[in-house]
Amino acid sequence: MDGTQILTLGLGLEAPWVLKDQHLDTFVSPHRLDLYVEAERGSLYPCPECGKACKAHDFADKTWRHLNFFQHHCYLHARVPRTQCPEHGIKRIEVPWARPGSDFTLLFEQAAMSLVKEMPVLAVSRQLEMSDKRLWRIVHHYVGRMLGELDLSRVTAVGVDETASRRGHRYVTVFLDMQRKQDPVIFAVPGHGKATIEAFSAFLAAHGGHPNHVTEVVCDMSKAFLNGAAEQLPNAEVTVDWFHIVQTFTKALDEVRKRERRHQAHPKALRWAVLKNTETGNLTDQQITALQELMSDRSATADAWIIKEKLRWIQKAPTPRAARWRITNYLRVMREAVIDKPLLKPMIKALETLKRHTERVVRRWMSGLTNARLEGMNGLFQAARSRARGYRNEANFIAMIYLIGSPVGRLLDRAKST
Ligand SMILES: [Zn+2]
Predict the structure, then answer these.
(1) Ligand 1 center to residue 46 CA distance, Å?
(2) Residue 87: pLDDT band by 50, 70, 90 thresholds?
(3) Distances (CA, A) of 186 to 158, 175, 292, 388
């Protein structure tokens, strides 16, 4: 077996294509290996429309980057014909080693995608010595193609969460199949509110699902979103996620702390101390001291903190009835505590929000869908953000969310093995 035969096997070339020439250039940096592929003279090629063997009309020279040959960049060159079909006229044929329009061979793209699933895109582009822009183009192609194969015909329970694509930038809204144990993301879209749920509903319908089959939605309490859900998913009962309740109160508490700080000095450690979950978060000594001081001086921040912490009593309710009873009592007691205290206004708003959504919150005790999944989204968003580090737009961030958190990643592996 000579070198040409080995390379032919390595490329997986089949008739009519043969490797005609090869050239290793060690005078350029990086070194490159050029492989020249040709079809035998007078070969017939299948018409891309009907598959009928046709004569070539003319040829165009094309080049693809291929997997490195050891440390050398490797390029594949071929003269690609246009067929002259009696029925379909003149058409450019597809070559078996690359997809139409790509400057890379399929093997190169597969290798790139395997790396992108494991490390940041920027790092992969450096390792492959290509621009990250071109690499993103490959990522988008495969993610888009795998999304096309997503089967959503059995989706009946949906969770929704949103995140800023970058600090303070535009939002990305993510939809989850609440019944999927692994890779729950089924849709991600720029923006937030009503438009995103309209987009989801259309996406669901385009992938074999039906908006009318969705019977449960777990989400936060934004009005725009709730209106959208009522319109687009008419059979869905809405459950407000507990995680979002805590988030609402935590934000309000932080607002109170900021307001109060304008009037009186707080110890530095206080900010994180009050925002931390006191049951699971490990407080530092400084933070504990800050909290103790807070409690002794009966500041507004202390009151707000107690209001937030007492949510736990509701959370531990054993039954829906008990939960409803606890919410009612909690609201009564806490409203008395905040009355005539202007600094606590943000807490009053949070309490009103809870009151307005009581039934949706109580549904959590009935629906059986765990909200741990939505809480887990934060980890996914962070991972996607770091993989897409330096990304230029939301589309890249979204592609990464799909790649890490949706079935797309596994569809890709399956496509590769066939
Ligand atoms: Zn034809």
Answers:
(1) 8
(2) very high
(3) 9, 6, 45, 19
